[in-house]
Design brief:
The protein is α+β, with helices and mostly antiparallel strands and 73 residues long. The chain contains two helices and five strands.
């Protein structure tokens, strides 16, 4: 689940990816859902895996999360 400042819950797979930001061992994802932006977090201990996931996500900004979730990394 993702939440914004107003504590709106978003089900996995909902929304459109609007941005990806790398912060150490994690990625911060900005997702637009019903006209609002929410933030999700993805964390990984293996740098090469996180690099690969970041590359795929950045290539799919402005696409539905549901479609991105079906991609192979």
């Amino acid at each position: 689940m993702l939440a914004d400042a107003g504590a709106t819950l978003v089900r996995p797979g909902d929304g459109v990816l609007k941005g990806v930001r790398r912060i150490a061992k994690r990625l911060s994802l900005v997702i637009e859902h019903r006209g609002r932006e929410v933030v999700g977090r993805l964390e990984c201990d293996e740098p090469s895996t996180l690099d690969a996931v970041e590359k795929v996500l950045r290539a799919h900004i402005d696409e539905p999360i549901q479609a991105i979730g079906d991609l192979d990394v």
